[in-house]
């Protein structure tokens, strides 16, 4: 049976020419202080082709006339080390997970590269050279590119990032199932927050409630730092302090997600601390909900990605004019200051071009918001949407969202 990772490698083969080699690194956990390290998170592009989550691993793929030949380099098991930090992945286990038959140890990687280049098999080397910011720390791929170019200047080094964007932006049925599972677990955590919410709690207790229930239901971790922003902090887009005591009459904006088998959910709900929306809160909430519905209704193959935010802006502008909060279109930016959508998958903000058209197999978030600082109202509503052949499917439709649904769970 072909694994998901074998299918991903087969898709990559179609983008490469004979004589191309692609190398990806799983990465390593950065040091904190003394002998402590931050938690390790595997490079998602490496994972996409291997299914392995261990540090230091490397995959090398060479396109030959016979097809794409993959070699996975893993750490050699060492009993003395394993007594301290746990078991290493065996060759047999690595093959079972990845579907790669050629499993070698890391200490042979450099000599393997040298032989492969010397034998004339490599004309171009593709590396994961994504770099969003000029002063970003060099990745293992960037360091390797520098060393490789000094030794083999006759081999052209190119970025694999743009190919990865095309591959990863379209999800297979198996990937969609994993995202759905992450969403289902997220739904449990959100509803447990709604049931537990009361005025005496702190924001961090909502975060803890979510973490507990998603871990108890199979999530590996949160897919990103949980936002539980109440009252005036609801207007801060990436508020993660979660340190404030909840107040009666305030709203709390929840932006959170579970990670399941490396795939992410990303959901936002805004709920009243005391279980009941005020008339004003309900009015603003329903405007945000209307904008979200308008965007979702517009989502289908062939629609430009950038059109989604335009739909959102038009709806919010029209509705805010109706209630007298703004008079001119230009005033919207005071209350809505982010985009409405991003891709979702292995990364919460998944890779892929935002300049093209929507295609079947894409998963996107839809997250309009209104942030009225002078009224201590911050509202964001976010769902995860799969683009289908003729339209879309709301993968998170079972998570309570309307005023009536939320109050039915919370009102005591």
TrEMBL record:
Its cofactor is Mn(2+). It is an enzyme of class 3 (hydrolase). It catalyses: Release of any N-terminal amino acid, including proline, that is linked to proline, even from a dipeptide or tripeptide. Keywords: Aminopeptidase, Hydrolase, Manganese, Metal-binding, Protease. Its EC number is 3.4.11.9. SUPFAM superfamilies: Creatinase/aminopeptidase, Creatinase/prolidase N-terminal domain. GO terms for molecular function: aminopeptidase activity. InterPro entries: Aminopep_P_N, Creatin/AminoP/Spt16_N, Creatinase/aminopeptidase-like, Pept_M24, Peptidase_M24B_aminopep-P_CS, X-Pro_dipept-like. This is Xaa-Pro aminopeptidase. Belongs to the peptidase M24B family. Residues 1-135 form the Aminopeptidase P N-terminal domain. It holds the Pfam family Peptidase_M24. PROSITE patterns: PROLINE_PEPTIDASE. It comes from the Bacteria.
């Amino acid at each position: 049976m072909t694994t998901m990772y074998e299918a991903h490698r087969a898709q990559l083969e179609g983008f490469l020419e004979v004589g191309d080699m692609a190398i990806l690194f799983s990465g390593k956990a950065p040091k904190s202080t003394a002998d402590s390290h931050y938690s390790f998170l595997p490079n998602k592009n490496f994972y996409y082709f291997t299914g392995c989550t261990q540090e230091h691993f490397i995959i090398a793929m060479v396109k030959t006339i016979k097809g794409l030949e993959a070699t996975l380099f893993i750490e050699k098991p060492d009993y003395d080390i394993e007594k301290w930090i746990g078991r290493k992945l065996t060759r047999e286990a690595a093959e079972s997970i990845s579907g790669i038959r050629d499993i070698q140890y890391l200490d042979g990687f450099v000599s393997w590269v040298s032989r492969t280049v010397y034998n004339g098999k490599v004309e171009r080397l593709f590396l994961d050279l994504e770099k969003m910011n000029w002063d970003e720390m060099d990745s293992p791929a960037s360091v390797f590119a520098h060393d490789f170019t000094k030794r083999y200047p006759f081999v052209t080094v190119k970025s694999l990032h743009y190919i990865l964007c095309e591959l990863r932006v379209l999800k297979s049925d198996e990937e969609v199932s994993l995202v759905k599972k992450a969403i289902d677990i997220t739904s449990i955590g959100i509803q447990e927050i709604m049931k537990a919410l009361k005025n005496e709690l702190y924001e961090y207790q909502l975060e803890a409630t979510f973490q507990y229930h998603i871990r108890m239901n199979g999530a590996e971790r949160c897919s990103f730092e949980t936002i539980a922003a109440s009252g005036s902090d609801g207007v801060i887009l990436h508020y993660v302090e979660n340190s404030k005591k909840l107040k009666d009459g305030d709203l709390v904006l929840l932006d959170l997600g579970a990670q399941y088998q490396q795939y992410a959910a990303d959901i936002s709900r805004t709920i009243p601390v005391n279980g009941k929306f005020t008339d004003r809160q309900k009015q603003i909430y329903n405007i945000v909900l209307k904008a979200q519905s308008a965007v979702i209704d517009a989502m289908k193959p062939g629609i430009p990605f950038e059109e989604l935010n335009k739909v959102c802006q038009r709806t919010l502008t029209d509705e805010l004019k109706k209630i007298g909060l703004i008079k001119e279109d230009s005033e919207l930016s005071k209350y809505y200051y982010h985009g409405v959508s991003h891709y979702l998958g292995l990364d919460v903000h998944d890779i892929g071009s935002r300049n093209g058209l929507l295609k079947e197999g894409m998963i996107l978030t839809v997250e309009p918001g209104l942030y009225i600082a002078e009224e201590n109202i911050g509202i964001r509503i976010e769902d995860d949407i799969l683009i289908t052949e003729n339209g879309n499917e709301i993968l998170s439709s079972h998570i309570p969202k309307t005023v009536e649904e939320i109050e039915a769970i919370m009102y005591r």
